[in-house]
Amino acid sequence: MSILLDRLTKRLGRVLVVDRVSVELKEGEMFVLLGRSGSGKTTVLRMIAGLVRPDSGRIVLHGQDVTHAAPQSRGTGFVFQNYSVFRHMSVAENVEFGLRIRGEKAPERRARREELLDLVSLSGLGDRYPNELSGGQQQRVALARALAYRPGVLLLDEPFGALDAGTRTQLRRALREIQRRVGVTTVLVTHDQDEAFELGDRIGVMDGGRLVEVGAPESLYRAPKTSFAAVFVGSGNVLVGPVTGGSLRIGTIGLPIPPSAPHEEGAPARVLVRPEQVILTKGDPEPGTLMLGKGVVIEQRFGGASQRVRLALPHPPGIRQLAPVPPFGEERLLMDAVLPSQVDVNAPEWSVSLRDWHVLQQAKPKLLAVHPPRGPVPSIAATARLAHRIDATVTLLGLAEEDLAASKLRDGLQDAVTKTGDSRLDVRVRTGDVAEQLALEQHEALYDLIIVARKARRGGIDATCEAVLESPRSPVLVVASEPERLDRVLIATAAGRPGETAVRRGGWMARRLGARVTLLHVLRPGREANRFVQAHLARATATLRAMDVESQVRVVAAATPARGILDEIATDQHDLVVLGHHAPARSLFARDDVPMQVLLSSRLPIVVIPAEEGA
Amino acid sequence: MSDSQDPREGARRFLPPGILVLVLLPLLLMPLAAIFIFALEGGPSKFVDALRSPDAQFALRFSLLIAFTTALVNCVLGTFAAYVISKYRFPGRQSLGIVVNLPVAIPTVVVGTSLLLLWGPIGLVGRWLAPLGIQPVFTPIGVLMAHVFVTFPYMFGVVKPMLDELEATYEEAAYTMGASRWQTFRHVLLPALRGGLFSGALLTFAHSLGEFGATVMVSGNLRLRTQTAPLYIFAQFEAGNIANANAVAAVLALLSFAIFFVLIRWSGGPGSMRQRKGR
């Protein structure tokens, strides 16, 4: 390997511009860092050159740790977007600069210079001055200058950014050829995906300071792992929905989840459909095709040989759309497709089916920590610890009733997040009615767990808590104080489907936490566990075992289910209680409801699993 | 709509410049003319004689020498200050930038006084140096100190914006190619600053040539020792030798015109000597 970046991190003020970037480059490889402006790609490049000092992490060039070495000693060649060719020096002097600094003799310098000017097709222009050259020529000079002293690594920062389209294409091709011929390991930074596709042996996609995904251009396009890469590299349709029975259901069709992208039951899965994988037919499609639905063309863009069309379809329930981003007020499902230009798209209705699709890797769990305008809030440190333990990302949702409070809240939360130094946390602030904003937030993003705080004293369920529990779309973790340990999980289960959901979601948490599970079943006094109950408990244990979670079963007798659960909690052998619910979510907090009774009488952290999760 | 026919148009167009010339006439143009008229009043031979006197000769040569040395010193000092303040990030950088420019704001007589109070025989530092036989004031060194002090901001003021404007990537390119900070300064920055250094030096030279307030305090106005041309003019005028004063004044004025002319040509007026920067 010729370049090794190991958890490279850089902060500028409060902003984390580069966040634990790790990658290894092979000898002679052309590696393209692709990302939007501000994604941290240039900072990574500058850190490799030694122009920016990393806060932590390591840089190894050809086996030598240069993390703290001066730029002069690294032997890198750097090409800037603005060329930075020395104006008071002729082309020849520019190219020879590095050699002159190294004390090489004039004849050798001249020979090398001629060789390089030839390489970049500028032979005979050695006596010219930069102001007599075009932009493209100046950039060729910069390239020759950077290669003159045979650097171990060539670094290019948006080298074609300042050039017109024609020159850009020409120079791109030239660069590819020169790089192949010289065989120097190269890192090129760009925001242009065409450039990345054309030049890169491998592409690293950067977003928000993180190297989100690395892969060959083709595999990045065909089979990206993350939704960011899916949307940023090439265009496409990305839909999200829960996994049921091993496949992702979109309306009437089910897309099987491939073994290469394992998903847990009920977890959201994201599927990428490239525009060329969408089939449009007038009338009904052939039987057996995966038809998404019937839609109308709402947008059409001519692109030479092909045309891009956007269709609007009725929105299947339970499905969210990540891309294309639906405009405000659009509730239909939007699908982009490509068609040959000669096809007339003026049909009242098109059948939209899928030729092929790609299921993205299961994303990290997403937690939502609710910070209401009044009342108790979940401890940020504890939230960060939990996120760390289950490898999740957290959104701290600040809720404010008016704008001034919102900006204060945002600053406060941002400060607190900065203090933790944890990049898993981000902050979102919403202004308006608490219950309404909570519902909106859950509608806009699918969370795996919602964290809400309650007062420490018994029965301390306030309005926010109630609002969250009113109709949650995800499991809700209600915490009273900072949980000390989360090593023993009690899952209270009843026979039937809600019980199954509780076991699955509780098992999921236990596996993430590395905790042991106790499965609790409460019987009326004097009753025996019938075959139905026993079968359910056996299946629950098997399910947990399949999830690699250790469990034990406890069957107790009590006057009411809540009483039984509370008695079990009182034995002080559990750190977290997971409760499912039979009733529709609406009446979840009726006072006679089991979770509410447990919540009112216990101070343990409790996860409430909504009955109709994901539906 | 064309109103070129309107007879009032001419008045409208030429009235403001006319007023400006009328205002400037007694303030600037006529006094300048007066110097030459007076200087040549007694005929060219008298003018030459006045210049030939040893005192006038000394004053002119001394002034030129001091101005040249001041320009040289500030070329180095001012560029160094500009480089440090432009390229290094350190606490107090902003305030240092203000301090460096302070001499433009302080009356030159105050500068002279302050130097006296520091280096003079009874000054804060001077009183310790005097017993050792070291006494910078009332010597050419004192005059040089005053001139360097007073003209310091000119060099700085020209070079600093140029350094600020020059993109950091030029230096960074040099660094990655292996050039040390000094090599980068020498081979990359300095050549790019050439024009600025030249005009900064000329500005410094011109200001030093005419410097009076600080010089009169620090030099002690000793003829044939520390008397600069402006001091000579003042002394001769006070003594009633108006012809002597005028002859030197005319020479100073001519020198200033020459420098001014070069500066204007250099810094990009019509027919500028400076090569246009290619984009």
Summarize the structure.
The complex is a heterodimer of chains A (615) and B (279). Chain A is α/β, with parallel strands linked by helices.
Task: Pick out its properties.
heterodimer, A: 615 residues, alpha/beta, ten-stranded mixed β-sheet, six-stranded mixed β-sheet, 31 strands, B: disordered C terminus
Helix and strand arrangement:
The complex is a heterodimer of chains A (615) and B (279).
Chain A: E1 3-12, E2 15-25, E3 30-35, H1 41-49, E4 56-61, E5 64-65, E6 76-79, H2 91-101, H3 106-119, H4 135-147, E7 153-157, H5 165-182, E8 185-190, H6 193-199, E9 202-207, E10 210-215, H7 217-222, H8 227-232, E11 237-244, E12 247-250, E13 253-256, E14 268-273, E15 278-282, E16 290-303, E17 306-313, E18 320-323, E19 333-340, E20 350-354, E21 358-359, E22 366-371, H9 380-390, E23 393-400, H10 403-420, E24 425-431, H11 434-444, E25 449-453, H12 463-470, E26 476-479, E27 488-492, H13 497-513, E28 516-523, H14 531-546, E29 551-557, H15 561-570, E30 576-579, H16 594-601, E31 606-608
Chain B: H1 7-39, H2 44-52, H3 54-87, H4 93-105, H5 108-119, H6 126-129, H7 140-165, H8 168-176, H9 181-210, H10 213-219, H11 229-238, H12 242-266
